[in-house]
Amino acid sequence: MEEKLPFTAHLEELRQRLIKCLLAIVAGFVISFTFSERIFQLLTLPLKADLHIKRTYPYFEFIPKENPIQKLVFLAPAEAFWMHIKVSLVTGLILSLPVILYQAWRFIAPGLLPSEKRYVGPFIVAGTGLFLLGDLFCFVVILPFALGFLLSYKTGTLTPMISVGSYIDFTLKFLLAFGAVFELPIVILFLTKLGIITPKTLARNRKYAVLIAFILAAILTPTPDAFNQTLMAGPILILYEVGIIVSKIFSRKEKDEGNQG
Question: Hey, which end of the chain has fewer CB within 10 Å, N or C?
Answer without folding.
Answer: N
